[in-house]
Amino acid sequence: MNKILIMSLLALIITSCGKDEVIEKGAGSIDIEFDNVAVINNIQNQLSLVTPGSTNYTYTNGIGQPFNLNLLRYYISGIKLEGPNGASFTDEIKVDVAASKGIYLIDESKLAANIITLENVPAGEYNKISFTVGVDTSGVKEGASGGVLDPATCKMFWNWNSGYIAVKIEGQSPVSNGGVGGTETLNSSSVNGIAYHVGGWRNVEGSAFVNNNKSLSFNFDTNAKVEKGLEPHVHMILDVISLFKGQNIIDFTGNHNVHKPIDGKPLADNIPNAFSFDHLHQ
Amino acid sequence: MFVGAIILGCQKENTEEVLDPYVLRRPDYFPEITYPISGNQISKSGFELGKKLFNDPILSLDNSIACSNCHVKAVAFTDPQHNPSVGIFEREGSRNSPMIANMAFQPEFLWDGGITHLDFVPIFAIENEKEMAETAESVVRKLNASPIYPTLFKKTFPSLDTITAPYMLKALSQYMLLLVSDQSKYDQFLRGEANLSSEETAGLTLFKAKCASCHSGALFTNYAFLDNGLDVTHKDIGRALISARAEDTGKFKVPSLRNILLTAPYMHDGRFKTINEAIDHYRFHVKDTPNLDTRLKTNGKPGISLTDEEVENLVSFLKTLTDYKFISNPIF
């Protein structure tokens, strides 16, 4: 009852301020879901996080070193959709003290957060998505922002070298000699800990400042049709195995305690090939 | 005719107008404002909230230490007592507490420039084990549970439901942004409101010749990270901590010299107790370090030559940078 009342009120308001184009005619929504998986022998396995300290190793990197994960969290921002017939939608980034619109935190321990619902998407057909893994620089330049960027609660913020971590991974590998500090799930006595806090948002030639944010684009295999009453659902995949064996092999006997932009670059460079479009349904 | 009368009337009023102290103003000889002020409009209540937070030990782990313990107003918001700054549990901090003045114009913060936005400095102070040893998350919890803060925050940020860290940080920034020091004798001189004595003038000339290549402009810093020859080996590697470049080892941000006679001890670790010791460093003790700035070498020899009389004149000039109105402003 109430809902209907509010809806009709909204409709009234919308028609009365049509000039503002609050909602485009016939606009709809679309869901983008990020499924975190481990691809083993070309088979996608749902990622399973272990409790910190677990010695149950189900994954291996590019050089056969076993590992497991306790934590996987990353930012997605600046989503853009495009279609074959000119349809286009940019999910505006607007960060302020109260909220950070257009920036999303995907957290494997909170699966509900892994579905991003984009609203007010103009009706039409879409077959391409672009986004940034990490927080677009506008998110840093505004200073302290709310929502998923809240530096006190997001646990994705470096305070001594200020900026956001794009991708945070913690786990263990039997070949690691531990000694990881400054983490959420491990401490320096975690003998086999591995921690990859990959961030950095600006490039300064020849220095440790590297921009580890990655802008990626993917084509869909079919068109997603957006219109009022339809809510297509796009499945994107992040394969965690590929993060450790792409262009760069991440050796757990090497630097397995990454907390600076430059140290995170090898893993960051594996990000583009770790993401893929999987499928969509109407 | 009528319109003209109104305009004239207004003009007359303008000359007697008292400037609103809660507006950030840039003196025209200052550099541009670096803080994106549009995202944090300063208000009287926001400034006052920031000031209250700045002076409240609630921001530290055992409620024992406030920002104002290490940034003392009477000495231009530096720390006169501890060398270097001592935080909670008497842990020794490794760095000297810098002046908080003219933050609105500063591009990067901390001695190593690790922070690029003023909002993010307090969270570093709060979460730094050597400073306040608290977590921002728990400070926010304490603020929400306090009998006074929820009302004060709501007054400044009417749309707020519960206090979160970004609101606290914006309020602290509002306070720090208005801490503008531009009322020293030297400012009056620049504005044509006062003359310098002959010693001060001689000191200014020397300063321009020997110091202003680094301590440049109206704020007396070019905000570069440089090695002024303090040490050959480093306990604190400075800028290299952030940039990870060997050639940045031992480089620190060139500090502003405004209020310099108030802000002892000097240098990033507070090693010099008096201004004369600091100047004597440049005269006699500059070390030929690998990253020493070339401006501190004359004919291949490190150091800046100054006679005793020149030092006296230089100090006379530096005294004109003391802003008594700044440190006695009741609003701050």
What does this structure look like?
The complex is a heterodimer of chains A (282) and B (332). Chain A has 282 residues and is mostly beta strands. Helices cover 13% and strands 40% of the residues of chain A. Chain A has one domain (2-281). Chain A has helices at 2-16, 138-141, 240-244, 261-268, 271-274; strands at residues 28-40, 43-46, 59-60, 66-82, 88-90, 94-95, 100-101, 103-107, 115-121, 124-133, 157-158, 163-172, 193-199, 214-226, 233-239, 257-258, 275-281. In chain A, the strands form 3 sheets. In chain A, strands 3, 4, 5, 8, 10, 11, 12, 13, 14 and 16 form a 10-stranded mixed β-sheet that branches. In chain A, strands 1, 2, 9, 15 and 17 form a 5-stranded mixed β-sheet that branches. In chain A, a hairpin with a 5-residue loop joins strand 4 (66-82) and strand 5 (88-90). The model of chain A is unreliable at 1-23 (pLDDT under 50). Chain B folds into 2 domains: 31-177, Cytochrome c-like domain (Cytochrome Bc1 Complex, Chain D, domain 2, Orthogonal Bundle), CATH 1.10.760; 185-328, Cytochrome c-like domain (Cytochrome Bc1 Complex, Chain D, domain 2), CATH 1.10.760.10. Chain B is built from 13 helices and 4 strands. In chain B, a hairpin with a 2-residue loop joins strand 3 (297-298) and strand 4 (301-302). Chain B is globular, with a radius of gyration of 22 Å. The longest helix of chain B has 15 residues, at 2-16. The model of chain B is unreliable at 1-14 (pLDDT under 50). Chain B has 332 residues and is mostly helical. Chain B has a two-stranded antiparallel sheet with strand order 1-2. Chain A binds chain B through residues 96-98, 140-146, 149-153, 157, 159-163, 204, 206-209, 260, 262, and chain B through 35-36, 39-40, 114-120, 123-124, 127-128, 135-137, 139-140, 157, 159-160, 164-167, 169-170, 173, 242-245, 248.
